[in-house]
């Protein structure tokens, strides 16, 4: 059990359940088993004493002849809603107390049996006491009060299993909410780290940890500082690349101009060296252009006004152009496409597919094909563009890194093939701007397979075989 939430839940639940069970067992076996009967005995004794007090008060008042017997009747009046109402009968005639429903019947029963009697009338209990030796008795005292509370039954030993079950349910609910509350800061931190790992450097957790413990707040504060630092460093890196790329354009243009001037005046034997300089200048110009494109993509430029894109037309045009280059290398590009369209930036999508397709043509073995498939994916209207070559593939540990700028699996081979190490990074950023994903994996029969997944557009992406 590695989940902190489950550990907290189980530990608190068991602790509270065990403590509650111990107290329940102790209370069950220390509680009087005849609690209800005992309560009735106490109530009957209290009623008897009040009746005797009222009768004694009345007899004393009659002897004095001062008419104070009215105050004696107050002794029988209930003090509150829980106190019983009392009536005193002699020879079947009520001589003191209020008129109680059903009192005459139970009085006759008690007088006939010369003993106590008990009846239930609705939510009340009527009890009758036969006082044979009271003053100038006999008297019958009738009292009416609520039935004994049912909660008394809950504490007898016979209900111990019910109590244990109740304790387990209540403590389980309390433990669940406590564990959820205590683990909430960690869930918040985990969600933030996942977003941070996915590239969202703007995530901050300290506002979401309001009310958490001091340790979690301190951890959240340090995490926010780390995210701010990383975001600042990456922003500085992007600005540096963008600024350097802009600054290199001017001297590069001068270099090309100087190269043309030198070529006009140089002897023929210098042409090989000049051609080499021109090739490297072109590569440098291409790299600068791709760096500027990458900077714009990372800044989110290009998706301000999305348009409807016919993906099939875009892919077919790229396959036709790059297919000619593949034929020069002894390979071919084969396309299997259905109709598909989304909303987005056509130039960005074209660059993404072109970079991945050119990379596949560059590394596929002579005599093999680069297979391109375009069609629907899954049940949510997503569109997949799958590009698979028949080359050497990529080491498994390098697959997550091939979309990073300037990353090369084999540095020498990549340079000889003319790659700059930025094309796949541009493709990944362009697809990400369309809220899509790019996934690379090694095909089972060899070669690299790259899948571009584009989600449904706002108007609904469409795709058909």
**Share in helix:** 40-55%
Indicate the CATH class of the largest domain: Alpha Beta
- Distance N to C terminus: 47 Å
Structural class: alpha+beta
Number of separate helices? 11
Order of strands, widest sheet: 2-1-5-4-3
Sum this structure up briefly.
The protein has 465 residues and is α+β, with helices and mostly antiparallel strands.
Model description:
This protein is an alpha+beta fold and 465 residues long. Helix content is 52%, strand content 17%. It has eleven helices and 13 strands. A five-stranded antiparallel β-sheet has the order 2-1-5-4-3, sandwiched between helices. It has a five-stranded mixed β-sheet with strand order 7-9-10-12-11. A three-stranded antiparallel β-sheet has the order 6-8-13. Helix 5 (160-197) runs parallel beside helix 6 (214-265). The chain is rod-shaped.
List keywords for this structure.
465 residues; alpha+beta; Beta-Lactamase; Helix Hairpins; five-stranded antiparallel beta sheet; five-stranded mixed beta sheet; 13 strands; 52% helix
Q: Secondary-structure map with pairings?
A:
Blueprint: H1 4-30, H2 35-64, H3 69-73, E1 85-90, E2 93-97, H4 103-113, E3 117-121, E4 124-131, E5 139-146, H5 160-197, H6 214-265, H7 271-298, E6 307-310, H8 311-328, E7 332-337, E8 340-344, H9 346-363, E9 369-377, E10 382-388, H10 411-416, H11 423-433, E11 437-442, E12 448-454, E13 462-463
Parallel strand pairs: 7-9
Antiparallel strand pairs: 1-2, 1-5, 3-4, 4-5, 6-8, 8-13, 9-10, 10-12, 11-12
Helix pairs in contact: 1-5, 5-6, 6-7, 7-11, 8-9, 9-11
């Amino acid at each position: 059990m590695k989940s902190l939430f489950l550990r907290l839940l189980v530990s608190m639940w068991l602790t509270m359940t065990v403590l509650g069970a111990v107290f329940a067992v102790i209370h069950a076996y220390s509680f009087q088993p005849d609690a209800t009967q005992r309560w009735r005995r106490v109530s009957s004794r209290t009623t008897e004493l009040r009746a005797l007090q009222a009768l004694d008060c009345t007899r004393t008042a009659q002897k004095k002849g001062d008419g104070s017997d009215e105050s004696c009747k107050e002794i029988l009046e209930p003090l509150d809603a829980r106190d019983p109402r009392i009536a005193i009968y002699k020879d079947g005639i009520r001589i003191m107390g209020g008129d109680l429903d059903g009192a005459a019947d139970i009085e006759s029963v008690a007088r006939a049996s010369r003993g106590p009697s008990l009846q239930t009338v609705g939510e009340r209990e009527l009890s009758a006491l036969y006082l044979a030796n009271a003053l100038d008795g006999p008297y019958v005292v009738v009292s009416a009060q609520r039935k004994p509370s049912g909660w008394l039954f809950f504490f007898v030993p016979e209900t111990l299993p019910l109590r244990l079950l109740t304790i387990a349910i209540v403590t389980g609910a309390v433990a669940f909410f406590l564990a959820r509350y205590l683990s909430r800061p960690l869930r918040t931190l985990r969600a933030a780290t996942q977003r941070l790992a996915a590239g969202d450097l703007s995530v901050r957790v300290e506002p979401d940890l309001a009310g958490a413990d001091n340790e979690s707040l301190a951890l959240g504060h340090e995490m926010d500082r780390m995210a701010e630092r990383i975001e600042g460093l990456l922003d500085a890196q992007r600005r540096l690349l963008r600024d350097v790329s802009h600054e290199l354009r001017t001297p590069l243009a001068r270099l090309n101009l100087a190269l043309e001037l030198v070529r006009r005046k140089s002897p023929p034997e210098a042409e090989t060296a000049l051609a080499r300089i021109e090739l490297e200048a072109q590569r440098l110009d291409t790299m600068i252009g791709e760096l500027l494109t990458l900077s714009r993509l990372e800044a989110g430029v290009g998706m301000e006004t999305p348009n409807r894109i016919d993906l099939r037309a875009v892919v077919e045009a790229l396959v036709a152009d790059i297919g000619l280059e593949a034929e020069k290398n002894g390979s071919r590009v084969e396309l299997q496409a259905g109709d598909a369209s989304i909303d987005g930036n056509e130039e960005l999508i074209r660059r993404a597919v072109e970079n991945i397709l050119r990379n596949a043509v560059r590394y596929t073995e002579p005599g093999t094909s680069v297979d391109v498939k375009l069609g629907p994916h899954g049940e949510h209207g997503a569109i997949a563009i799958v590009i698979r070559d028949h080359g050497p593939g990529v080491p498994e540990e390098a697959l997550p890194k091939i979309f990073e700028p300037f990353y090369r699996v084999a540095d020498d081979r990549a340079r000889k093939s003319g790659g700059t190490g930025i094309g796949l990074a541009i493709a990944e950023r362009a697809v990400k701007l369309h809220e899509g994903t790019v996934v690379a994996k090694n095909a089972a029969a060899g070669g690299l397979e790259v899948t571009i997944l584009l989600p449904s557009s706002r108007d609904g992406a469409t795709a058909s075989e």
